[in-house]
Here is the input.
Amino acid sequence: MSAATPKHPHPDPLPGRERERTVQVLADLPAVARAAAERFVALARDAAAARGRFTVALSGGKTPRSFLQALAGPPYRERFPWGFVHFFQVDERWVPPDDPRSNQRMLRACLVDKGPVPERNFHPVDTSQPDPVEGAKRYEDHLRRFFPDPPGGVPRFDAVFLGLGEDGHTASLFPGSPALGEENAWVTHAVGGSPRTSRVTLTLPVLNAAFRVIFLVSGAGKAGVLRELLLGKGGGGHPAALVAPKRGKVTFLADADAASRIPPAEAAYPGGEGGAG
Here is the structure.
């Protein structure tokens, strides 16, 4: 079974079901990391067996870091089909790859060098050139070579793992950013964060084409924005509310602090009652 060539086209995992969303509340950040690793392993193993390839886009940040560290350790490391999974970046700060702020640096330290991930299966953003606008175009060119002529004109990742900022941003899509209005490009330049930094990011059309989107949310500072995303009209105007695949599934894995303002009826608790949002 080849790691690069699917055995047959990717089936629609949710026929007739649109914008499905579930919320699972875990005790703490380590529990969120383990739950994310369990889901990732299950999805990747199923895809490897059925199609010979699994594509995923990964984010940086504290919560995703804990998930990647869990994935690269026991018991998940031994169960993961490393050779069949292709890892892409959701976004990247425009800094050298050895900069402490670099998402690529974090991905290599926490996952790629420990997985082990075959080097050909890791697809980082190249920040070696000075112009992030050109860098976004280069990363899109790389994606277009990997996903030639995708149905609908947009690549469909098997899974995208996202974080959530206290201001409601996700990926490098910040409140008020022109990048939120990008409808044609797969990758675009953006500026944001604290301190404000040039970045490149996957665009909303790409995020919204994914088969699975999994938000990893931890900390009491995220409680307000998570509540607005799940209950507030229009998601409170947050960029993360715009991630709503029409033919995919969105899952929020949140720790108890982040979920402290969500009514119990809106979430699933392991071993207890709860429902899908």
